[in-house]
Design a protein that fits this description.
alpha+beta, binds adenosine monophosphate, 5-stranded antiparallel β-sheet, binds zinc ion, single chain
Length: 115
């Protein structure tokens, strides 16, 4: 837990969020600035800054983020139409919050290359 990390603060319920999933290790909440009709952020409660910092011991936890994301995609009815899962890492990818998070985006068409 990092004192000043916005997602650690959400995890500690120090700032509000629209939570869609929570267990002992993982949380998912609605993105405050949605880029698609469905835009959910899935995080581990453990403070890991970015994908570059994942260790071997985190493999199960990171896999769980994807598992939770696909369950939420079904609940939000975007599983059949399609969705995008995104980890942004560091400056060139536009990472703004340095607590690892998986974006679940759905409900519209996405393009490739992503730009
Ligand atoms: P990234 O650019 O991958 O670091 O994405 C960070 C995401 O966190 C952005 O999509 C923000 O809109 C989102 N975000 C920032 N603060 C909050 C918050 N308090 N509650 C929900 N989502 C947030
Ligand atoms: Zn954090």
């Amino acid at each position: 837990m990092e004192k000043d990390c916005i997602f650690c603060k959400i995890s500690r319920k120090e700032i509000p969020s629209k939570m869609v999933y929570a267990d002992e290790e993982v949380l998912a909440f609605e993105d405050i600035n949605p880029q698609a009709p469905v835009h959910i952020v899935i995080i581990p409660k453990k403070h890991i800054e970015k994908t570059s910092d994942i260790t071997e011991g985190d493999i199960g936890l990171i896999g769980k983020l994807v598992f939770v994301a696909q369950k939420i995609a079904k609940e939000k009815n975007v599983s059949d139409s399609g969705y995008r899962l995104v980890f942004n890492c560091n400056k060139d990818a536009g990472q703004a919050v340095f607590h690892i998070h998986l974006h679940l985006l759905g409900g519209r068409k996405f393009f490739w290359p992503p730009g």
